[in-house]
Amino acid sequence: MDIEEIRRFCLSFPHATEDVKWGNDLTFTVGKKMFAVTGLETAENISLSFKCTPEKFAELTEKAGIVPAHYVARYHWVTVQKLDALKTDELKSLIKQSYEMVWEKLPKKLKNNLNS
Fold first, then answer.
1. Tell me, what's the pLDDT at 89?
2. What's the pTM?
3. Residue 106 CA to chain centroid, in angstroms?
4. Burial of 98: CB neighbours in 10 Å, binned 0-12, 13-18, 19+
5. Other C-beta atoms within 10 Å of 114: how many?
6. Furthest-apart CA pair in the chain: how many Å?
7. Residues whose CB is less than 8 angstroms from the CB of residue 111 and which lie 6 or more positions away in sequence, other chains included
């Protein structure tokens, strides 16, 4: 996956938006809560961070090229330093799970407002 494929995939989820934060990070959010982040600086060396379950966090951080995400590892975020560390289907599944976990934690009122 390249950055444009990541962007299209993340924005395909209901109510997903994008924003550039911290000067060079493309963030994907739902209800103003992040579910994925990628850097914009180096097109040839794309990394991607996202939220996962505690079990998946432990499993993924055992793989080469995947590390606990800076600042947010305590919330079970990982950084895939090289996207070829995972098969495309697995990466997409993990991004989707991140989106779903964040969506489920949104307040009911916010979800209702987004859906109306």
1. 96
2. 0.92
3. 16
4. buried
5. 13
6. 43
7. 31, 103
